[in-house]
Amino acid sequence: MNDLLTIFRALADPTRVRIMLLLLNMELAVGELAQILDQSQPRISRHIRILDEAGLAERRKEGSWVFLRPGKAPQLEILRRLFRSDDVISSKQALADQVQLSLVRKARAEMAERYFEAHAEEWDAIRSLHLPEDDVEQAMLALLKDIDLGHMLDIGTGTGRMVELFGPNSQRVTALDKSPEMLRLARAKLLGNESDQTDQAVLARKTELKLGDFNNLPVDDGQMDSVLLHQVLHYAQHPEAVLTEVSRVVRKGGTVMITDFAPHDHEELRTAHAHARLGFSDDSMKRWFTASQIDMVQSRTLDGGKLTVKIWVGRKSGLSQIHSSSDADLSNNFPQKRAQL
Fold first, then answer.
1. pLDDT tens-digit map of 294-317
2. 60 and 28 in contact (C-beta within 8 Å)?
3. Is the CB of residue 190 less than 8 Å from the CB of residue 204?
4. Residue 235 gets which letter from DSSP?
C-alpha cells in the first residue's frame, strides 16, 4: 500500500507525468529533459529524485552526464498502458513534448554524423588493410548462428555495430564502452523511439548502454551468457588480465568471441591509432583462454588484405579439446538457442 501511495504522489504533478511519457519513449539526459520541458536543470533534478524514490525512473551516471530511464517499480508495467492510451499521447502537451523530443533525436543524429565525418579517413585507413567488414561480420554470424546468446555483453561497443548484428538474437544486451562520446554515438544510433513495435524499438528496449573499462568490468560475477570483443583487445596493455575479467562475468558454459588481428608489423597502428598490441597469435590466445578457464572451441582465419583477421570462440569451462581451423564447425558443442521471448 505504501509503495502505491508513493507512486500516486510522484505522479501528482504534471511535469513528472510529462517526464514519464518522455522516458517511455527513450532514455534521456537531464540536460535534454530540461531542454524539452523548458525548465532549469535543478528543477528537473528535483522531479527526477521524486520519480526515482518511487521506482518510476532511475538515474545512471555516464562520465559527466546523468541519464534517466524507466525504473523497476512493478506497477510501472500496468501504468504503461495508461501512459500510452490515446487520450494521453494525443493531448496538446504530450504532442508538443514529442516535437521537442524529435529535436533532441535530430541533435543526436547530427552529432554522430559530425563525428563520423571527422574520423572517416582514420577508420577507412584501417579498414583498407583487411578484407571488407561485411565478410568479417558474416563469418562471426555463422560461428554464433546456433548459440544461445542470452544476456550478451558487448565490450568496447563503439558505435554499437555488434549490438545491431547480434542483439536481435539476444534476450538482453549490455553494451560497454569507456568513452562517453562513443556511448553517445551508440545511443544516437541504437536507442530511438522505444514506444513502438518496430525491430529497432524492440532492440532499444532490451539494450543497456554502460560506461566502463574492460580491465574492471562493471558487471557481477557470472551474469553474462555471452561476451563479444570486436576489434577491442589490441587496445589492452595486458590482454590476459582482460580475459580474466571476461571469465569472471560470464557464466559456466557461456560463450566468448574475440575478433581481432593476427600478428602483423604495421607499426603505424601503434603510433597513430593507439594499438597497444600488433595482433595476436593462436598460441597466445589459447594460453590466455586456458589460464582464464575458457576452453577454445574454434578459431577462424580470414585472409584477404594486408592484415589477417582472426576470430576465436571459447566456452567457459567444460570443453577440453582445442581446435584451430578455418573450416571446422563446432557449433554443436554449444547449448542451442532458447526460444526468444
1. 999 999 999 988 889 999 999 998
2. no
3. yes
4. G
